[in-house]
Request: fold
Amino acid sequence: MRVPEDVKWIIGQLNQQGYEACAVGGCVRDMLLGREPEDWDITTSARPEQVKTVFRRTVDTGIAHGTVTVLRGKQGYEVTTYRIDGIYTDGRHPEQVTFTPSLEEDLKRRDFTINAMAYNETDGITDLFGGREDLAQGVIRCVGDPLHRFGEDALRMMRAVRFAAQLGFTIEEATLAAIRKLAPTIRKVSAERVRMELVKLLVSPHPEQLRLLYETGLTAYILPEFDRMMETAQNTPYHCYSVGNHTLAVLCHVPPVPALRVAALLHDVGKPDCRKADEAGRDHFFGHAARGAELARDILKRLKFDNDTLRVAEKLIRHHSDAIEPTEKQVRRMLNRVGEDIFPLLLLLMEGDNMGKTPDGTNERLERLRQADQIYQGILARRDCVSLKTMELTGDDLLAAGIPGGRQIGALLQYCLELVLEEPEKNRHEVLMQAALRKYEKTGGKGN
Reply:
């Protein structure tokens, strides 16, 4: 058990003053799994005011609930007093907490057995609820009565699924049954907290565990659009899954980049609205990408996603079904249309989208994407101009040449950009200025 020196020191300082102390929760779980813990939490019999007398540098981060942050250099470590939680009236916070000298009482209040273990070098691992066995068996199990645990904080239901996705575990049957029963209570949880858990699940090694959110009824309250996707068949030669099952397959075939996996989740969210069957019974989804981009914007706003994720995901969804011809001209135009920062993500989404379809034709489609990527790499290496920001002619240049401002300037710049997208070697100031002036004169001073 490799415990950081700072954590050992904090525990040691508390022990010297006669208090119990140990690392607790996720850091112990991760150590047992051979993983490097991201955070180190410490629990102690010392009350908050006693912790503050032991250490010179502290911050009152949650003192009402027993938490003091101890600073070591630039690093902070949360030290929390053993406690018993009172009634949870808001589905998140206990109305009050009672400090206790008992480590066992403190561990009883934690969510899952794998997160209810403590460790220090003197006592070793304290495991009162079978956490090590559940780790060995690959099981997510509530501490005590799962109905009680989820009644305290409804977000724990999503956390159960998220841990299953991150660790590749299964959820114990009584715990799973409690999630199904209490699924409607997820509505008590703020959109921000739901979003954080959803993203952690999406970027996990097993994003297909999203299916569990659907099967337990949670998505009906946090993402009802996904329920419609799961229930929408695709009677086409290109698909062997429903929209939702196709989406789960796509999630597994794109890298764990948050905005990319969010876009993969919602790339076909417009299909249920756009589904039309022809006379032969074959389904068509004309316009689903544009409709999906509109729906995705509303969904991501509802879940309080940041503006950058919203921008990237919406653009990816809007263009995920565009045809990319593997030619330099077409790739340059696509780069201009979607943006240089988004284009490589779009190729990854398109690849994942194809991997989630029927095998017929997959190799050919993937080969075209591979060729488009090679062309894109060449465009990058040559630094071809694909947008106004790298074009060797600016609006100020045209104003200085005597062309009045307004629409004429914009139209002439767009005209010159079209020339450059066709023939990148024309991205030279003198060439573009001459072309702009000729166009201006030809159109009688209108520029378009």
User: Anything to note?
Assistant: Residues 362-382 form the longest helix (21 residues). The first strand starts at residue 21 and ends at 24.
